[in-house]
Amino acid sequence: MAQGTLLYAQSGGVTAVINATASAVITEARARKIKVLAARNGILGALREELIDTSKESAAAIRALAHTPGGAFGSCRVKLKSLEADRARYERLLAVLKAHDVRWFLYNGGNDSADTALKVSQLAQAFGYPLTCIGVPKTVDNDLAVTDTCPGFGSAAKYTAVSVREAALDVAAMAETSTKVFVYEAMGRHAGWLAAAAGLAGASPDDAPQIILFPERAYDEAAFLAQVKKVVDKVGWCVVVASEGIQHADGRFVADAGGGKDSFGHTQLGGVASYLAGRVKDQLGLKVHWTLPDYLQRSARHIASKTDWEQAQAVGKAAVQLALKGQNAVMPVIVRNSDVPYRWKIEAAPLTKVANHEKKMPANFLRKDGYGITAAARAYLEPLIRGEAYPPFGRDGLPKYVTLKNVAVAAKLPKWEE
Amino acid sequence: MAQGTLLYAQSGGVTAVINATASAVITEARARKIKVLAARNGILGALREELIDTSKESAAAIRALAHTPGGAFGSCRVKLKSLEADRARYERLLAVLKAHDVRWFLYNGGNDSADTALKVSQLAQAFGYPLTCIGVPKTVDNDLAVTDTCPGFGSAAKYTAVSVREAALDVAAMAETSTKVFVYEAMGRHAGWLAAAAGLAGASPDDAPQIILFPERAYDEAAFLAQVKKVVDKVGWCVVVASEGIQHADGRFVADAGGGKDSFGHTQLGGVASYLAGRVKDQLGLKVHWTLPDYLQRSARHIASKTDWEQAQAVGKAAVQLALKGQNAVMPVIVRNSDVPYRWKIEAAPLTKVANHEKKMPANFLRKDGYGITAAARAYLEPLIRGEAYPPFGRDGLPKYVTLKNVAVAAKLPKWEE
Lengths: 418, 418
What we know:
The structure is a homodimer of 418-residue chains. With 418 residues, chain A is an alpha/beta fold.
């Protein structure tokens, strides 16, 4: 074994392929005789010194990790603040890294994680501790700056497009005497990337989804209902895909309209699809069904995109290579060379350009009427859902997902308390 | 071409594999030189004399039909009443069948369709018209009598078990700092077959889903919440699968508890998962997510069960064979010869034994505490989700589902008005 260890941690909402990145990190490090520790529950495990010795996992388990959704070491939703505001935590982090001779820190997450990795690297430099920090991209929200796309997005996008195409065939068959409108709620609080991906399900404006509602456009109820009616009159039925983040012109989230309390004082959990379905029922008198796939859309490894899966592994492998070359404070990002044929490569981008930035959907991706996607959006999105990367299935009809042993490393420091 | 035509119609909620049955019907009939008409939108098309000439479809299209979800000719939710109460409709039906020289009528649906097929056959006999009526089984609800299982159920069951397993990995990864409870709402108004299928996702009581709520047991809120707390305390998180049909001890549907009107007088669409999630949040103070897959679960052809797909085709093929043998008023049903190895065959059952009966889940399928399934349930369910029957995918990353031409046959009778 070479001197020093590599610490890998997962952060934020997990995806269908973040473990593929983890698998690639471990595989690449093993090939180079580097010991890999993983933090339990992301940065929390690093702070708590709850570390996992990945060398206890078999090669078969690490291979299986590449087709297992979820976050094998646990993730967390913990955002570290500025170096000044959160100095104690950053220093504790550095102390843990030192105690375990961590020379390479790979943080697999979104904007916040890139920011954390950047700050840890700055602190290490200030203390003269030789540490290379790498941000590794991941998010179904597809909102990371610099990188052409984010591992995790392509698979969620494929799930969305496939599910919408399938449900639309159901609705079309039932519309004469039953459901005429179907509403699908897609993740995306700030940007409509996944809603846009649903647009891949249909080729013409009369194909489902006939209406997509994006957070990039103000929700105009009268216009929306008129559009639904127009589509039902013409096509006989209508599939609506709505981003969870759509807002009224005054900035109120539509999702907050439902919910509240019922007459018993019970919390009513609403959501965009439920709200829109209610309006269609009330105002248009049409039979309506709706779906909230929620976590299913980001964990659906069974319908992962091959492109996405390959990119998730590529950023993991590149992260180790960049780390070992000592390229500090960078993120391996996906660069698109061409749409047709689709060609991409990995490059290193400075974390300063990624941290705390948010990629918006380009304005030319939305159709003029705001209810669909343009050819430019298709050209961007389509390669990302291309190819199938099925997990192996067992004789029991279920995917063979691995559960790691996650053997703890003995702690060397006093217990940490916030 | 032989004398006489065969009329095929789809009824009720469609499934991921009802078109596989249609494909098998047409393929088998073509091999025997029998002309197949299909009714547009089920029995409605037969009443309205809106018939489709399937001979206009290419062999490739009929092959592709076998991997296309939805209902290719349209389905409907129309229940014919008794012969006495609905005599005019039955007589019109017979008139249409006669006008198109229909000698074999195949009705692909559930209990109601079996009943309709039975009554049409009785009326034809009364009028001395030579007609063979066959009911062809289909329903994700798995509630048809006599048959061991219903085509459509196995694929929805596989979707359910796979989705729950995947979402559980997501929840497990996030539980330390985020979502601790996840609620999945499964179809099943009267029987908990699909909720039971979710139980296949885990092998031990600590595996997800740790709690299943069945319509077969009264919903006891205090006991449920206590169980959620117990699981979260032990496992760290909890996945709940709830049948849409669960009821309070007094018979009120839990799904009806949410909903109602908001302060603007807008309809609030509730549902079981949304309600349960609200209770978990209010009473236990735990972060909760929930999903309502709705139509996604019954249209998910991309994760169809191979067993189910084969059985859907087998009943279609057998239906044609039975029809041509003149076996009137029967349904090809699936008979299970053994669990291990799983062996099944097709037999003919009299429609009188299927019509208007409903198969309940056996009492010994539910664990004593009512929150899980037994080994007997597993032995029954597991073969039904076995095997994958992926549809072909295009270069665009989407499944290649076919849209038929559905060429109309010229009407021979006056327009029909109810």
